[in-house]
Specification:
With 295 residues, the protein is mainly α. Helix content is 68%, strand content 0%. The N terminus and C terminus are likely disordered.
């Protein structure tokens, strides 16, 4: 089948997925490749890293050479190793926090949409209270109170972000909860769990999938900001936000050593690359009229 005949992409043949890939914008394909690279790096970090995550060498601020491809930091730790493990820690913690906030927010949003009485009011006012305080300030206060362990970061960020997911899920579910087939299920005597899982959730899943991508981006940036401020992931755990802070002094050496000046930009560019790539993919996915035809 000719590859330029996109009208035949609906047929079942070996070129089906090739045709559909040709219809995806180049920016989305590149973003997918970037996300795949970072994902593989995060999963296989122990195999890809040349040294241990917390391994310290005698020479601090070493230059780029065959032993340390990206040099070392102020403590003598290999920068490339820290970048690789930083991918695992930064992405893993952000993914866990985003999943927690998403599951909590969606569940409460669906319950509120089905129960338009006192429970909806209580959950709505609780979400308003959380949203009234800037999330970064709220997170700083809670982490100062409970400590900056990985579990606390996941729980606190997940709790704060769940209020935003709650608003989105409730808004989407309200439009479905008034449909005739939902009312018919109520009349049949179906319970709340059935209505949530079988009637409402399947109809709002595409929008929620796009929202999850955006929520992950926001959570990822929040955790990077906390680490940059020194209250995120703590040493010796590698994290891109803390790496930007730790290597920031190398920027002053840019006039003398260009490579040294580039080193602090590497974790910052990694943060930016993931955020931009996710936004490209989410915008494309959300902009499709029929999300079932993505693949």
């Amino acid at each position: 089948m000719p590859l330029n005949n996109l009208s035949n992409c609906r047929t079942r043949d070996p070129w089906l997925y090739v045709c559909k890939l040709r219809g995806i914008p180049t920016s989305v394909l590149v973003s997918g490749v970037v996300l795949a690279i970072f994902g593989i790096t995060a999963i296989f970090a122990p195999l890809l890293a040349p040294y241990g995550e917390g391994e310290v060498f005698p020479q601090s601020y070493a230059g780029w050479d065959r032993h340390f491809l990206l040099g070392t930091d102020s403590l003598g730790r290999d920068t490339l190793t820290r970048l690789i493990y930083g991918a695992r820690n930064s992405i893993g913690v952000a993914l866990a926090a985003a999943a927690l906030s998403f599951c909590t927010g969606v569940a409460l949003g669906l319950v509120a949409a089905l129960n338009r009485f006192w429970l909806d009011e209580v959950l709505g006012r609780a979400a308003d209270i959380v949203l009234a305080v800037p999330s970064l300030i709220f997170a700083l206060m809670l982490l100062a109170m409970f400590g900056s362990s990985v579990l606390n970061i996941i729980l606190i960020i997940g709790f704060l972000d769940a209020s935003r997911v709650f608003r989105v899920a409730r808004s989407l579910a309200l439009g479905i909860a008034v449909m005739d087939y939902v009312e018919a299920a109520r009349v049949r005597g179906e319970g709340t769990l059935w209505l949530m899982s079988r009637e409402i959730l399947p109809n709002i899943a595409p929008s929620l999938a796009a929202e999850f991508g955006l929520r992950f981006s926001f959570v990822f940036l929040t955790i990077a900001s906390l680490s940059f401020l020194g209250v995120g992931l703590q040493p010796p755990t590698a994290d891109w936000g803390s790496m930007v802070r730790e290597t920031a002094s190398l920027i002053t050496f840019a006039d003398f050593d260009l490579k040294a000046g580039i080193t602090p930009l590497l974790p910052a560019m990694s943060i930016a690359a993931i955020t931009v790539a996710i936004n490209f993919v989410v915008d494309w996915f959300f902009g499709r009229k029929d999300s079932a035809d993505v693949f």
